[in-house]
Write a structure and sequence with these properties.
The structure is a single chain. This protein is mainly α and about 90 residues long. It has one domain: Annexin V, domain 1. The protein contains 4 helices and 2 strands, in the order αβαααβ. Strands 1-2 form a two-stranded antiparallel sheet. α1 runs antiparallel to α2. The protein is globular.
């Protein structure tokens, strides 16, 4: 797919890479499934970079608008499930 990832100009190069890796993990959850621990690790790192709920919501909403993938739903499934693989249903 052709879309842009949301990021802040205040982030370091490593932080941008880690946020993109989180969104790629969300993509994987929708496209083929991803190991629960990989997604959890990516989400934890994302929350270190974007600790505020308002910023998280804004960035994730921008990603969903451009990609169609809901970070919120994927993280919710991650937290509610004990399954080793997180696999989301596409709309």
């Amino acid at each position: 797919m052709e879309y842009q990832y949301s990021f802040s100009l205040d982030w370091s190069t490593d932080e941008v890479i880690d946020v993109v890796a989180f969104f790629q993990s969300i993509e994987a959850a929708y496209e083929k499934g991803i190991e629960r621990e990989k997604l959890m690790s990516a989400y934890r790192r994302f929350k270190e970079i974007v600790p505020g709920k308002a910023d998280e919501k804004r960035i994730c909403n921008e990603f969903e608008e451009s990609s169609g993938y809901s970070s919120y739903r994927a993280v919710k499934r991650l937290k509610e499930s004990d399954s080793k693989i997180v696999k989301m249903q596409s709309r």
